[in-house]
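Quick one before lunch.
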Amino acid sequence: MADRTKIEERTITEDGRLMLKKVEREGIETVWDRYETQLPQCGFCELGLSCRNCVMGPCRIDPFGEGPQKGVCGADADIIVARNLGRMIAAGAASHSDHGRDLVEILKAVGENKAPGYKITSKEKLRRIAKELGIETNGDDINELAVKLAERFEEDFGTRQKAVSFVCRVPQKRLKVWEKLGIVPRGIDREVVEMMHRTHMGVDNDWANILLHGLRTSLADGWGGSMIATEVSDILFGIPKPVSSQINLGVLKEDQVNIVLHGHNPLVSEMIVQAANDESIKSLATSKGAQGINLVGLCCTGNEVLMRKGIPMAGNHLMTELVIASGAVETMIVDYQCIMPSLGHIAKCYHTKMISTSDKAKFPFMEHREFHSDNAQKLAYEIVKEAVENFSNRNKDKVYIPTEPVPIMSGFSVEALLEAMGGTLNPLIDAIKAGLIKGAVGVVGCNNPKIKHDYGHVTLTSKLIQNDILVVDTGCAAVAHGKAGLKQLDAIAKAGNGLQEVCKALSIPPVLHVGSCVDNIRILVLAAALANELNVDISDLPLAAAAPEWYSEKAVSIACYAVASGIFTVLGVAPPILGSKKIVSLLTEGLQDVVGATFAVQPDPNRAADIIIEHISKQRKNLGLN
Ligand code: BF8
Ligand code: SF4
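Model of the FE(4)-NI(1)-S(5) CLUSTER with Oxygen complex:
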């Protein structure tokens, strides 16, 4: 194994550093070690210049112009880079959207009384969305309405001919842009499948045409699959409201049964939450000598239950292995996405039971207990009971909970924000017009061992709020900010004077948690509402997005739908496109004239902040604001 980098180089977090010392002592391998064994990573792949779409290949293009300039089929650098990027977008859009589909299936099952334990928590939102989509109802039958809405969404996945339902939310000016380009998303599955088709050998060999379909595919995610996922989650599990909780490894409790919820879809975790509140299970825990049952979250499943239930958050992507190394976890329950296949291996060093729950996501050294609408309630109860029974197997000598948790505020859905502002966007608009708030930025996305853990998020966001830019966050970025103490009322003091004034008046922190990664659509909904209110396009607003530490294909899809929706987006890690000058120039400059927004790549978060501050002041000037 290569020499390990210093722990201080790996993460800025105290809990992470202390836990990394423990795993080093115990000889446990982590994501950082494996990253180092991969170095140097393949230069062709980093540039996007390798292709294995067929077995005449694999092929690669020499970036220095000396070796091959075409694959066996004749594809050049531009075609290969575009095809690879297209497939990344398709995979990301598929992941969010398939998660949305699972929720739609439960919504339908609830309407048909086939999902014991699940219910419609927000009847108001169900009615509101049904009305928005023009779904007729006979009378007040909420179950019938659930089925009808689910069926409408099912159609959105297939071929809808014209457009997915939520295109009705797109501001007219933006929709015209998409219509002109022919990128209005038709069906969610359709755009993903079409991308796979186009990138098969011998189909779409016009790099720009592939990329245009890439934007359409990403829009099918943002205004389709992800939007459905969030809205149906709110209907089933409730609209998030401001809630206080705690964050970092210190949320684990030495004297309690610790159950960790990891993954993305709230379908499983919501049932576990119910089961953990069952009185008979609680008394079983007491009889085993535990002071209670402590549920904590990781990654986006963690974000979902933090937003709606105030369940404490243990950590983000790069912390998922370290949570197990605490030796204090009785059971980790996973659903899907961003679950490293290494987790089961690490759990073998402790008493931790690992449970996978989705038919589409099995992992090494995990026990597979498949959740379906009809058995979820029963299964959740059994799993929590087994976790309680596992408490007595804990080896106290191995337990280490390194820090005290940090307080965090969460739960800022669009509805909650509107409520905080007295039902209208006017206070926000007035604050922007008056220059108290210069603009708003969505800081989102992952961790990646290529960037010092949490450094990108925390550095960028701290600088933005100092400059009176409101930050809304999701995913692992939100967890980073939370651990750094930026998501509590005390953090108001870290903001610029103008932003401080607004935060104090509304009693909100300067960095607002809007949810998991599918919940990035809450930012779209807010941006669309702002654009409509001001009668401008989204691309005219003083907004930006950033993903300082992104790693996943889902993040590529999010970044693309942000830009296609008109939001300037800065990435901290370069996507594999640098092998094509034409594509780099289109994405970083040319798109401005096409969709009114571009990408930028800037690994240094301080400089990324400068770029964003400059962009926002330019947008303000164009709107006639000083
Ligand atoms: O969907 S931010 S590492 S956990 S991909 Fe994954 Fe990235 Fe975290 Fe959530 Ni989003
Ligand atoms: Fe090579 Fe073309 Fe096949 Fe790709 S599609 S592997 S470039 S022959």
